[in-house]
């Protein structure tokens, strides 16, 4: 009889092979500086800036936390770092994960997350939490529809001011996700279609947010659209990106405070929010 961690490890290896990388857990013998520099490059930080210093990574590895990197031809091209969180003994919080831009969309991110899942299951950890920017459609689809993580809480301006290319000049709102590592959706796509008659409470109108919360009154499921590429909007028109931040914040917090839950994310670019 196989333990859940055995099957998870096999799935993780298969995902890494498919992505053309080797994913390894990092320990105190691992040179951390190349991984730290790689993650800084993912966020387009300056040469002396980093979100996770190498010395902190060494300390985290020494105290038994989760650190991994995806290697191609001996070079780190992706990484993931997490620490234990409450409820202690059951949850890991994944603080940062990234893949170098030139290899985005090739399955490396999935390989890292499945490695993280296998590592956790082998240690009796049942769930992983992390935050993501709810305006980034590709992350919403991957995290919610592909991995099956469950949005649990909307966090307003969670990190405060950040200076990297993705966050500079914008409030750092985040959605907190919880990933049940034992759920059937933990490795397979978990997308659910929107009902044909689901009203849109946030629409895109000539590139601008169009909020219509009143349209969702009495509906079982509503949809909330976001731009297909918010990074491009931020680069071209930061003020418009700011309007999208405030609009999505208003819509999601209003819906969640009314007792609804984010149930999914459609690949065409909208959240599904409903009862239960």
Describe this structure in words.
It is a single chain. The chain has 276 residues and is of the alpha+beta class. The chain folds into 2 domains: 4-186, Aminopeptidase, CATH 3.40.630.30; 200-274, no CATH class. The protein contains 7 helices and 12 strands. The chain has helices spanning 4-19, 33-42, 54-62, 108-122, 137-146, 230-236, 238-257, and strands at 22-25, 66-72, 75-85, 91-99, 127-132, 150-155, 174-180, 200-205, 208-211, 221-225, 261-266, 270-274. Strands 1-2-3-4-5-7-6 form a 7-stranded mixed beta sheet, with helices on both faces. α1 runs antiparallel to α4 (108-122) and α6 (230-236) crosses α7. The radius of gyration is 19 Å and the shape is globular. The relative contact order is 0.12. Keywords: Transferase. Pfam families: Acetyltransf_6. Residues 21-169 form the N-acetyltransferase domain. This is Putative GNAT superfamily acetyltransferase.
């Amino acid at each position: 009889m196989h333990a859940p961690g055995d099957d998870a490890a096999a799935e993780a290896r298969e995902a890494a092979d498919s992505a053309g990388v080797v994913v390894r857990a990092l320990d105190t013998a691992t040179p951390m500086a190349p991984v730290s520099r790689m993650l800084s490059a993912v966020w387009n930080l300056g040469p002396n800036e980093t979100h996770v210093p190498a010395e902190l990574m060494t300390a985290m590895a020494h105290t038994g936390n989760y650190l991994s990197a995806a290697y191609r031809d001996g070079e780190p091209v992706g990484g993931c770092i997490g620490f234990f969180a409450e409820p202690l003994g059951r949850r890991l919080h994944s603080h940062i994960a990234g893949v170098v831009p030139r290899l985005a969309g090739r399955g490396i991110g999935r390989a890292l997350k499945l490695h993280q899942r296998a590592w956790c299951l082998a240690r009796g950890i049942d769930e992983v939490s992390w935050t993501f920017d709810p305006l980034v459609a590709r992350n919403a689809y991957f995290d919610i529809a592909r991995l099956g993580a469950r949005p649990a809480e909307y966090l307003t301006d969670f990190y405060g001011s950040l200076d990297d290319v993705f966050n500079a000049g914008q409030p750092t709102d985040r959605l907190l996700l919880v990933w049940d590592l034992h759920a059937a959706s933990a490795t397979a796509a978990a997308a659910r279609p929107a009902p044909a008659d689901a009203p849109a409470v946030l629409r895109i109108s000539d590139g601008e947010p169009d909020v219509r919360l009143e349209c969702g009154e009495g509906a079982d499921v509503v949809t909330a659209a976001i731009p297909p590429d918010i990074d491009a909007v931020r680069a071209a028109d930061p003020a418009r990106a700011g309007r999208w931040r405030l609009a999505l914040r208003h819509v999601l917090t209003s819906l969640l405070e009314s007792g609804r839950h984010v149930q999914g994310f459609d690949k065409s670019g909208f959240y599904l929010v409903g009862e239960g």
